Mannosyltransferase (Gomphillus americanus), 755 residues
Amino acid sequence: MPASRTVSENSVQIDDNESSPTTSKADLDAASTYSQSQRANAATSSRDILVFLVAFRILNALCIKTFFQPDEYFQSLEPAWRIAFGPDSGAWITWEWEHHLRSTIIPYIFAGGYRVADFIANYLGAGPFKRAEILIVTPKIIQAHIAACGDYFTWRLAERVYGKRSLEAWICLALTVCSPWQWFCSTRTLSNCLETTMTVIAMNYWPWEWSLRSVDETTMADSVRLEQDPEHTLPERPLRLRRCLVLAAFACILRPTNILIWILVTYFALFRVIKHERMVASRLIKIPLMISVSIPRLVNATRRERWILLWDATLYGAGVLLLSVLCDWTFYHKLTFTPFNFLYFNIAKSLAVFYGRNDWHYYLTQGYPLLLTTFLPFAVLGIYEGLTDKDDTDDEKPEPERLTSAIRYQLTSVCLTIPLALSFISHKEVRFIYPILPLLHVLSSPSAAACIRPSLIAVTATPTPASSLQSSPMSSRLMDRSYLYTKPYKPWSKLSAYRPTILPTILLLNLLIAMFTTQHHQRGVLSVLTYLRTEHETKYLTQPPALAHLPPADTTMTVGFLMPCHSTPWRSHLIHPNIQAWSLGCEPPVHVPPGPEREAYLDEADRFFADPQHFLQTEIGPASTKSVNKQPRSGFGLAAAIFGNKQSAVTEASSSYTDIDIGTSTLFPLRSICPWNGGLGRKPWPEYLVFFEASSKDITEVIAPLGYIPCWRGWNSWFHDDWRRQGDVIVWCRKGNLDSKKLKLAERRQEGWKW
């Protein structure tokens, strides 16, 4: 039986029970007045904005020279490197992957980029120098495109809320482009960044109109309301909802806590709180009492809409889950459900607290200010208006106005509820609430627009009369919702004298914050890897060919990081597999139950910083032949190299852990005896030692008598909340690794530097 469509203001109802068409010809004619040329101009404008955002974020990604979070590398790039180049490539696979806590979707995305970049480098005949640069830049380019999509759909979401090409939408785009946090974080390869992009894209496809109570509930019982978009033809089925559910499912797989967002918006789409009030007379008190009971009822979405939501969510959610399980199976070599493992380890077993506890008010006092920085006042006003402007039940109001109020209220509820829910978890980080930042920008845009335009928030200078509003075509009302914001904006009335200076001040502060966080703060931990990679390329990859009477040139370089664990990136920046490196570990007490034993647990990094000299004297270097591989190539040649033997025993000692221990049969081969790339075996003395200035005095007193001298020092930060990471990044190396000129320079540095 043919379905009939009824176009009412800004929605389309598909009624399966009606056999004859009841479509309003006037409304359909009004929608068709959006001419082909106007449609083409709008598409061109959107395409131009997307191209600009991609170029802008690529520039953003290439300008970042600082370190933020270890997860940027160890939860995405390290497993991606292993997928792309194999188990012998030197990637550091952390304990989270050993216990199947992380989804492999993101690593497979970047692994594909690595394979393509490596193919291009080989096709162009790029040498090791150029190939390394190409492989380092590739993840940045991929993430820049992801960040640009997030910016673009933030702007499109603002258009859905405030109207096409409205001032609020343009201001929202300006907020996300000029945001210091977005400049600092959006192009980093964190799972939270992809989660944020997927969330805001899904929000664009969510059927917000379903949250409105239908005017004629009897007629609408078996109908589907589809938002009218003059730029596109009307879909026969809500395809936008399916796109939304697929993206939302992926976001929940990446970060299981993302499901809280979709539980909330689904609640608003299906339920409405109905208040039941009754006056009751009391015998004890001679004053009548008003008893009010609020009960959620299924009065918003129609029966047809509820069925479509349930069916599509089950179908497409199961499809995404199946794809995730297949990806995880190919990586872990066993069936596993990573979202459950993630929640079980971090919440049920309380292992997240091993990495820090935060105050209950962390997201309120630190999370919001860090995300919004100078835009915080606009967001506070936007949240206040979103809560107080929930006026979507008045049937006499135009439906676009009701829809705007409903969306703003729901976005506000999400922005308040998600930090509140995550506050019950002891371990907190600002990036955990990163997905709500685009929503905060959408809510902030009216107050920011009012700051720019003195009297009106919207573009129009003349309000649209209500009488003409009722008779205007549907498409024009949807394209211009400026009549929604024609009242003077009171919060800025007292600041009218300072208003011209607000925008330049905000832009200047944002520029200073962005430059400091991406060019200066924690720069040394990335610069030191560039130095080490350059040392390897110049000293080990450019050796002359071996002569008949000389042994072949040494090609393996060994490095040790005496830093808090995961203080630097790893193979994604070291690149070359012949750079064998070890670092202090920080494995959590996975198998220790909560209690005094877990509280007293000290990982390798804790033991080092508790007494650096004792740790270096007892836990670094060879102890006995039983502590290493049963089939070493040259025993403990590294100790002989440190104490004067000029042969390349360092390389032989390092390679004894490589070919035998790193196998392809399992994902985590023999970590207990292999010290390299996150292994837990006893660590040998390397050719290069890297550490922070804060612990340099204790370290140098031990390593100086062993033949180490300073060879590099790099700026890192003026301050740091972790005392172990304060000061510059310093590299000491063996004297045999320097030529005569560099050796003399290093000795002068050793005399001049105050360690």
Remarks:
- The chain has a mean pLDDT of 77.
- Residues 31 and 475 are 5 Å apart (CA to CA).
- The two ends are 85 Å apart (CA to CA).
